[in-house]
Automatic annotation (TrEMBL):
Entry keywords, A to Z: FAD, Flavoprotein, Monooxygenase, NADP, Oxidoreductase
Protein name (Swiss-Prot/TrEMBL): Unannotated protein
Pfam families, sorted: Pyr_redox_3
GO molecular function: monooxygenase activity
Cited Gene3D superfamilies: FAD/NAD(P)-binding domain
Cofactor section: FAD
InterPro entries: FAD-binding_Monooxygenases, FAD/NAD-bd_sf
Amino acid sequence: MSGNSNVTEEVDAVVIGAGFAGLGMNRRLRDEMGLSVRVFEAGNDVGGTWYWNRYPGARCDSESFLYCLTFDKQLMQDWEWSGKYPEQPEILRYLGHVADRYNLRSNMTFNTRVTSAHWSDLTNRWTVGTDQGDSVSCKWLVTGIGCLSSTQKPKITGQDSFSGPSYHTGEWPHEGVDFTGKRVGIIGTGSSGIQSIPVIAEQAKHLFVFQRTPNYSVPARHGTVTKESLDEVKKQYDDIMAKARASAVGMHYEQSGQSALEVSEEERNATYERGWEEGGAKFLFGSFNDIGSDIRANDTASDFIRKKIREIVKDPAVASKLSPVDHPFGSKRPLIDTNYFDTYNRDNVTLVDIRSAPIQEITPTGIRTADGEYEFDVLVYATGFDAMTGTYNKMDIRGHDGLALKDVWAAGPLTYLGVSTAGFPNLFMITGPGSPSVLSNMPVSIEQHVEWISGVIECMQKDDLATFEADEQAQTDWVAHVNELASTTLFMQADSWYLGANIPGKPRVFMPYVGGVGAYRQKCDEVAAAGYVGFHLGKESISA
Ligand code: NA7
């Protein structure tokens, strides 16, 4: 017991977040293991990432049938996706259906943000505080807070003076935005920009795209899917998901076993051409196995995409500005699009290169750059997130002796297996830094963590143990392994959010684990089978 008179509720577990992770964890702990659980969610309903990211064109880059929870085979058989890729409204409907179907909202508290979590060595419990005044005591604390949930809006001189509305893609108004007849400015050409620009361009009177760094993108080849093709998938669902779980990125595709350098130029280009026509992740993963590791191989893919940009974009000067040259293909998050480059052939779209002529200020009527003034009515920030650690650092999480997580992570996140941090017992991070997370099809990684974490809790309950904590040396070794693997890849050659490079002052540390979903799962399973080697399992259960 907590012994704290201010405590408003005592439960076995608190779960933070009601996206895929929070829903899956709640179902597992509450319904399958019989624990008392409280879930806190900042939004007013379930959805997580897909609750907030409602910008035009928002959709997932994983194919629909792979982007799902698999704990109930009947759910997998019953749900019908309508498109090749799941669009944001459909994912939100799916997660709403999951919540309804398993009555998962009944122990969720919405519109409530967790602001603090303090561990007590006296009681071996966490006290979780919220912005609504809750103070909940729990034995287990699980974060399902997403990897891209703290938006980053750069500080730009004069931005508060803008007289029209401005929106961040990651905090999009639920009622939508009507751009009809409006002049629109958008800053950012990452995934959110590349998805929203073609859609906004179709509606707006004029769209100014403020681009700092051009990005590689390949066609998604999005479209509807037939019932027959989904039925075929459903017949083989177990096999497909088994392959996805054992794969590098949580998808079932066969990875190519061939080097881009061991085939003729003609054969290589034919392979890229097939990937381009097929679209999506297959261009990267189905073509050659060394695009991510050998710069000479990578150059062939990067050159191919630049050639495509020159073919698609009619104005050679615009094509040149849209062609990435400062980082290898895939070293930033690989993007897939619908009509992105074609959009620059429209008369109502202007590309503004703010690398050569930076933004000087935002004015009441638009943006002034070093080479001119651009007037518009609505401003869109597609400027990304403080990825992977931003949301952790916003909460006051304290472990032993009041140790603050954000201090422990000041030089970059320290975790063992990306799921636990030394000094913070009984705290589990679903898809935390140091796990494959954002380099994978997220639900596959999320469910792996849900299963592994609940396995820990089951074992602790069976043996009546009180505390579970990462060993400092095991953590140091894991972090070194994560860094060492990343250093062998071309990921280190881009200023990406994977490296924290998009946030001024953030330590330059590669945060996700590049070793692959399958290998990572195997490592986690081995750790569990060996009695959770690298963790301390404490016996003292102290009751107040
Ligand atoms: P990203 O991928 O971080 O893209 C952000 C974009 O915003 C990128 O083009 C940035 O340019 C640009 N940006 C950021 N700050 C500035 C400033 N100060 N001035 C001009 N331009 C700026 O975020 P997304 O939301 O698109 O995607 C995030 C992930 O969500 C995505 O990868 C998917 O996993 C889903 P830069 O490249 O830094 O020069």
